[in-house]
Amino acid sequence: MQPQQPIRQLFQQHYGRLPQWVAVAPGRVNLIGEHVDYCGGFVLPMAIERFTSIAAAPAPADRCAGPARARLWSTALQRTVEIQLSATAAPVPTAAADGWANYVRGVVAGFSARGVCVPAFDAVIDSTVPLGGGLSSSAALEVATATLLAAMTGHAIAPLELARLCQQAEHEYAGVPCGIMDQCASTLCQEDHLLLLDCRSLETKQVPFTRPDVVVLITNSNVRHEHSCGAYAERRAECERAAALLGVESLRAVTLEQVEAARASLGAVGYRCARHVVTEIARTVAAAAALQNNNWSALGPLMAASHASLRDDYKVSCLELDLLVELACAQPGVIGSRLTGGGFGGGPVTLVEAARAAAAAAAIALGYRLQTGRECTLFTTRPVGGARLEP
Ligand code: GLA
Questions:
Q1: Are 86 and 16 members of one domain?
Q2: Same domain membership, residue 103 and residue 31
Q3: Cα angle at 60 between 13 and 4, to 5 degrees?
Q4: Ligand 1 center–CA 41 separation, angstroms
Q5: Could you tell me the CATH number of the domain that includes residue 352?
Q6: Which is the closest atom of ligand 1 to the Cα of 35?
Q7: Contact 380, 218 (CB under 8 A)
Q8: Closest C-alpha to ligand 1, atom 9
Q9: What pTM does this model have?
């Protein structure tokens, strides 16, 4: 899905001149490997056909005196935010009207920390990545910003380094202690491939999405349970506590036997979290191997086991998500379905035969409405490429 109006045109309408750069970064969906990136595990995301685009040009000469600032026009909010580009610009409270610009501030700070000065500029920001749907709208904004700033400053930055810079922005400017998956996916994914990312070594492998007759159906429950942010940090801390108890740097380094043997000392919560992480890493490796062997029928049971583990052991699902997965799995043509992203809202990722996707989507939407009185939103996508500068 492209912006309603080409972003170059929006820039010209707003600022009365043409942009010099257009940077585009996609959202992502994770097929399997949930809540394991911050434990050094394997994840298997893909970039989706939803993008954040930024068109920009240097500020006019009369705005270049004094400390450098950027004007950011958000098409979603239909308003401009002005941000400082100095190395010391701090984040504003997330709930502030310009709280969303913290992602941009954080990326600017990352360039400053690398000794790169960002000159004054004007930008239009447009996004088709749904907010709060677990599709990494924030990573898309960070990665689009970093791609833009690399072009604008002439500071070449390797893709993994760019992803790290963006993750740091999320940690320090949005206060979310996320792993590296989302920023890597938005940066490194390739068309018609999933990205097998080893979050410990940061080695990557492009895994071909071999079936042209299969699409990825993304559903948003349109619920967001309030404790999602705090609960994410709690889960991460619990995993770190379990790893420390087991005497390893991260849960990636332990086997299921070790977790079982340490059950009593881990305590009930630590044990469940560690079991989820260890089994989910194994499922992700198995799913990547299945895809590589063109063994798609193995994916359904792996996705089902992943969902059960996230629901019962990791406890990041909710009734609405469980229902959506159950409805999806009951539809003809569905290969597999599971909760994707952080949980507590968002929705499932479902692999479905393209020819049956519309019927499956309609049946899921109807079942959800009948059982919850709520509307879900659905769309299909194929894997697309990561961030780019438009020519
Ligand atoms: C969020 C985080 C990711 C990852 C997922 C769960 O999307 O940003 O780093 O931890 O949750 O897999």
A1: yes
A2: yes
A3: 25
A4: 12
A5: 3.30.70.890
A6: 12
A7: yes
A8: 179
A9: 0.96
Is the CB of residue 27 below 6 angstroms from any atom belonging to ligand 1? no
Q: Which of 232, 235, 251, 344, when mutated, tests ligand 1's pocket best, judged by the most ligand atoms within 8 Å of its CB?
A: 232
Atom of ligand 1 nearest to the CA of 170: 8
Burial 286-314 (b: 16+ CB within 10 A, else e): bbbebbeeeeeebbbebbbbbbbbbbebb
Residue 162 sits in the same domain as residue 247 = no
Q: Provide φ and ψ at 192, rounded to 5°.
A: 60, 25
- Examine the domain organization and report whether 194 and 219 are in the same domain: no
Residues 202 and 223 in one domain: no
Mean pLDDT by 10 residues, the chain (391 residues): 75 97 98 98 98 97 81 96 87 89 96 94 97 92 98 96 98 94 98 98 97 98 79 96 98 98 98 98 98 97 98 97 98 98 94 98 98 98 97 83
Tell whether ligand 1 has an atom less than 6 A from the beta carbon of residue 37: yes
67 with 179, same domain: the answer is yes
CATH of the domain at 175: 3.30.230.10
Expressed as residue numbers, the domain containing 336 is 214-381
